[in-house]
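User: We ran a pulldown and think these components assemble together. Before we commit to crystallization trials, I'd like a predicted model of the whole complex to look at. Sequences follow.
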Amino acid sequence: RKEVEQDPGPFNVPEGATVAFNCTYSNSASQSFFWYRQDCRKEPKLLMSVYSSGNEDGRFTAQLNRASQYISLLIRDSKLSDSATYLCVVMDSSYKLIFGSGTRLLVRP
Amino acid sequence: EAGVAQSPRYKIIEKRQSVAFWCNPISGHATLYWYQQILGQGPKLLIQFQNNGVVDDSQLPKDRFSAERLKGVDSTLKIQPAKLEDSAVYLCASSLGLSGQGETQYFGPGTRLLVL
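Assistant: Here's a predicted model for the assembly, 225 residues in total across the polymer chains.
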Protein backbone atom coordinates (compact mmCIF):
# COMPACT_ATOMS: atom_id res chain seq x y z
CA ARG A 1 0.00 0.00 0.00
CA LYS A 2 1.34 3.46 -0.88
CA GLU A 3 1.99 5.80 2.02
CA VAL A 4 -0.03 8.59 0.38
CA GLU A 5 -2.73 7.74 -2.15
CA GLN A 6 -4.52 10.06 -4.54
CA ASP A 7 -6.86 9.65 -7.49
CA PRO A 8 -4.65 10.52 -10.49
CA GLY A 9 -7.56 12.03 -12.45
CA PRO A 10 -7.63 13.93 -14.68
CA PHE A 11 -10.52 15.96 -13.41
CA ASN A 12 -11.88 17.90 -16.38
CA VAL A 13 -14.19 20.71 -15.23
CA PRO A 14 -15.62 23.91 -16.75
CA GLU A 15 -14.63 27.34 -15.51
CA GLY A 16 -16.59 28.30 -12.43
CA ALA A 17 -17.09 24.72 -11.24
CA THR A 18 -16.34 23.45 -7.76
CA VAL A 19 -14.00 20.49 -7.61
CA ALA A 20 -12.77 18.37 -4.70
CA PHE A 21 -9.71 16.17 -4.37
CA ASN A 22 -9.19 13.51 -1.76
CA CYS A 23 -6.12 11.86 -0.35
CA THR A 24 -5.52 9.09 2.19
CA TYR A 25 -2.38 8.34 4.15
CA SER A 26 -1.28 5.15 5.86
CA ASN A 27 0.93 6.31 8.73
CA SER A 28 -1.15 7.38 11.72
CA ALA A 29 1.96 9.00 13.27
CA SER A 30 2.14 11.58 10.48
CA GLN A 31 2.61 15.05 11.86
CA SER A 32 1.72 17.66 9.29
CA PHE A 33 -0.13 17.82 6.03
CA PHE A 34 0.09 19.99 2.93
CA TRP A 35 -1.18 20.51 -0.57
CA TYR A 36 1.41 21.43 -3.21
CA ARG A 37 0.68 22.57 -6.73
CA GLN A 38 2.85 21.52 -9.67
CA ASP A 39 2.43 23.07 -13.10
CA CYS A 40 3.47 21.08 -16.16
CA ARG A 41 7.28 20.79 -16.33
CA LYS A 42 7.69 23.05 -13.27
CA GLU A 43 8.69 22.52 -9.68
CA PRO A 44 6.18 21.85 -6.86
CA LYS A 45 5.08 24.90 -4.88
CA LEU A 46 3.35 24.97 -1.52
CA LEU A 47 -0.34 25.76 -1.94
CA MET A 48 -1.45 25.48 1.67
CA SER A 49 -0.99 23.63 4.91
CA VAL A 50 -3.85 21.50 6.22
CA TYR A 51 -5.07 21.74 9.81
CA SER A 52 -7.49 19.58 11.77
CA SER A 53 -9.84 22.53 12.17
CA GLY A 54 -9.90 23.06 8.42
CA ASN A 55 -8.52 26.13 6.73
CA GLU A 56 -9.43 28.37 3.86
CA ASP A 57 -7.39 30.55 1.54
CA GLY A 58 -9.57 32.41 -0.90
CA ARG A 59 -11.21 29.87 -3.19
CA PHE A 60 -9.30 26.98 -1.64
CA THR A 61 -10.40 24.99 1.42
CA ALA A 62 -8.43 22.16 2.98
CA GLN A 63 -9.70 19.64 5.53
CA LEU A 64 -8.01 16.96 7.60
CA ASN A 65 -9.69 13.98 9.24
CA ARG A 66 -7.09 12.29 11.46
CA ALA A 67 -9.42 9.49 12.53
CA SER A 68 -10.00 8.43 8.92
CA GLN A 69 -6.48 9.46 7.80
CA TYR A 70 -8.05 11.50 5.03
CA ILE A 71 -7.21 14.91 3.56
CA SER A 72 -9.24 16.95 1.11
CA LEU A 73 -8.89 20.05 -1.05
CA LEU A 74 -11.88 21.97 -2.37
CA ILE A 75 -11.53 24.54 -5.14
CA ARG A 76 -14.47 26.85 -5.71
CA ASP A 77 -15.13 28.95 -8.82
CA SER A 78 -12.38 27.21 -10.82
CA LYS A 79 -10.20 29.36 -13.07
CA LEU A 80 -8.29 28.32 -16.18
CA SER A 81 -5.12 29.10 -14.23
CA ASP A 82 -6.01 26.42 -11.66
CA SER A 83 -5.10 23.75 -14.24
CA ALA A 84 -2.20 21.86 -12.67
CA THR A 85 -1.33 18.74 -10.72
CA TYR A 86 -2.18 18.88 -7.02
CA LEU A 87 0.13 16.89 -4.76
CA CYS A 88 -1.00 15.67 -1.35
CA VAL A 89 1.95 15.73 1.03
CA VAL A 90 2.36 14.21 4.48
CA MET A 91 5.19 14.88 6.91
CA ASP A 92 6.22 11.76 8.78
CA SER A 93 7.48 11.50 12.35
CA SER A 94 11.06 12.22 11.22
CA TYR A 95 9.92 15.40 9.44
CA LYS A 96 10.37 13.85 6.00
CA LEU A 97 7.88 14.89 3.30
CA ILE A 98 6.04 12.01 1.63
CA PHE A 99 4.38 13.02 -1.64
CA GLY A 100 1.37 11.43 -3.29
CA SER A 101 1.48 10.90 -7.04
CA GLY A 102 -0.78 13.87 -7.64
CA THR A 103 -4.22 14.60 -9.05
CA ARG A 104 -4.35 16.34 -12.39
CA LEU A 105 -6.91 19.12 -12.87
CA LEU A 106 -7.91 20.53 -16.25
CA VAL A 107 -10.19 23.57 -16.23
CA ARG A 108 -11.79 24.21 -19.63
CA PRO A 109 -13.30 27.49 -20.91
CA GLU B 1 15.22 37.12 -3.40
CA ALA B 2 16.83 34.54 -5.67
CA GLY B 3 15.35 31.07 -5.56
CA VAL B 4 16.99 27.66 -5.64
CA ALA B 5 19.25 27.37 -8.68
CA GLN B 6 19.94 24.11 -10.49
CA SER B 7 22.00 23.15 -13.50
CA PRO B 8 21.92 21.78 -16.05
CA ARG B 9 18.20 22.00 -16.80
CA TYR B 10 18.30 19.05 -19.20
CA LYS B 11 20.70 16.17 -19.70
CA ILE B 12 20.66 13.22 -22.08
CA ILE B 13 23.16 10.41 -21.55
CA GLU B 14 23.57 6.78 -22.46
CA LYS B 15 23.26 4.03 -19.88
CA ARG B 16 26.44 3.28 -17.95
CA GLN B 17 27.64 6.88 -18.37
CA SER B 18 28.12 9.24 -15.44
CA VAL B 19 26.26 12.47 -14.78
CA ALA B 20 26.38 15.21 -12.16
CA PHE B 21 23.83 17.80 -11.11
CA TRP B 22 24.47 21.02 -9.24
CA CYS B 23 22.27 22.93 -6.80
CA ASN B 24 22.65 26.29 -5.09
CA PRO B 25 20.07 26.79 -2.34
CA ILE B 26 18.44 30.02 -1.24
CA SER B 27 20.99 32.16 0.57
CA GLY B 28 21.05 31.41 4.28
CA HIS B 29 19.17 28.12 4.03
CA ALA B 30 20.92 25.48 6.09
CA THR B 31 18.95 22.46 4.94
CA LEU B 32 19.19 21.09 1.40
CA TYR B 33 17.27 18.21 -0.13
CA TRP B 34 17.59 16.18 -3.32
CA TYR B 35 14.44 14.54 -4.68
CA GLN B 36 13.83 12.20 -7.62
CA GLN B 37 10.54 12.60 -9.48
CA ILE B 38 9.74 9.87 -11.98
CA LEU B 39 7.08 10.69 -14.59
CA GLY B 40 3.60 10.28 -13.14
CA GLN B 41 4.82 10.09 -9.55
CA GLY B 42 5.41 12.51 -6.72
CA PRO B 43 8.91 13.55 -5.67
CA LYS B 44 10.82 11.03 -3.54
CA LEU B 45 13.49 12.19 -1.11
CA LEU B 46 16.97 10.89 -1.93
CA ILE B 47 19.11 12.76 0.59
CA GLN B 48 18.84 15.59 3.12
CA PHE B 49 21.74 17.74 4.32
CA GLN B 50 21.84 20.01 7.36
CA ASN B 51 24.75 22.37 6.61
CA ASN B 52 27.42 19.94 5.35
CA GLY B 53 26.20 16.90 7.29
CA VAL B 54 23.88 14.16 6.02
CA VAL B 55 20.61 13.92 7.95
CA ASP B 56 18.85 11.24 5.90
CA ASP B 57 20.12 9.21 2.95
CA SER B 58 18.04 6.10 3.57
CA GLN B 59 16.48 6.18 0.10
CA LEU B 60 19.67 6.99 -1.83
CA PRO B 61 20.84 4.04 -3.99
CA LYS B 62 24.37 4.23 -2.70
CA ASP B 63 25.79 1.74 -5.17
CA ARG B 64 25.42 4.33 -7.93
CA PHE B 65 24.30 7.64 -6.41
CA SER B 66 26.43 9.99 -4.35
CA ALA B 67 25.96 13.52 -3.09
CA GLU B 68 28.04 16.06 -1.29
CA ARG B 69 27.72 19.49 0.23
CA LEU B 70 31.28 20.13 1.26
CA LYS B 71 31.07 23.77 2.34
CA GLY B 72 27.50 23.66 3.53
CA VAL B 73 26.21 25.79 0.67
CA ASP B 74 25.91 24.33 -2.83
CA SER B 75 25.62 20.64 -3.51
CA THR B 76 26.25 18.10 -6.26
CA LEU B 77 24.44 14.84 -6.92
CA LYS B 78 26.19 12.24 -9.05
CA ILE B 79 25.02 9.07 -10.73
CA GLN B 80 27.67 6.56 -11.80
CA PRO B 81 26.87 4.46 -13.78
CA ALA B 82 23.41 5.54 -14.92
CA LYS B 83 20.62 3.07 -15.64
CA LEU B 84 17.54 3.47 -17.81
CA GLU B 85 15.33 3.66 -14.72
CA ASP B 86 17.22 6.76 -13.52
CA SER B 87 15.38 8.81 -16.13
CA ALA B 88 13.54 11.37 -14.02
CA VAL B 89 13.52 14.97 -12.88
CA TYR B 90 15.99 15.63 -10.06
CA LEU B 91 14.70 18.38 -7.81
CA CYS B 92 16.72 20.28 -5.27
CA ALA B 93 14.96 22.04 -2.40
CA SER B 94 16.08 24.10 0.56
CA SER B 95 14.67 25.30 3.85
CA LEU B 96 15.91 27.63 6.57
CA GLY B 97 16.83 24.69 8.74
CA LEU B 98 16.59 26.55 12.02
CA SER B 99 14.94 23.57 13.66
CA GLY B 100 14.95 21.03 10.85
CA GLN B 101 11.36 20.42 11.73
CA GLY B 102 8.52 21.09 9.39
CA GLU B 103 9.80 24.21 7.70
CA THR B 104 8.63 25.17 4.24
CA GLN B 105 10.76 23.70 1.48
CA TYR B 106 11.41 25.75 -1.65
CA PHE B 107 12.10 23.80 -4.81
CA GLY B 108 14.40 24.57 -7.70
CA PRO B 109 13.33 24.12 -11.34
CA GLY B 110 14.86 20.65 -11.51
CA THR B 111 17.18 18.81 -13.89
CA ARG B 112 15.42 16.60 -16.39
CA LEU B 113 17.54 13.48 -17.05
CA LEU B 114 16.97 11.07 -19.90
CA VAL B 115 19.03 7.87 -19.97
CA LEU B 116 19.08 6.09 -23.34
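The longest strand of chain A covers residues 84-91. That may be worth checking against your pulldown data before setting up trials.

User: Thanks, that helps.
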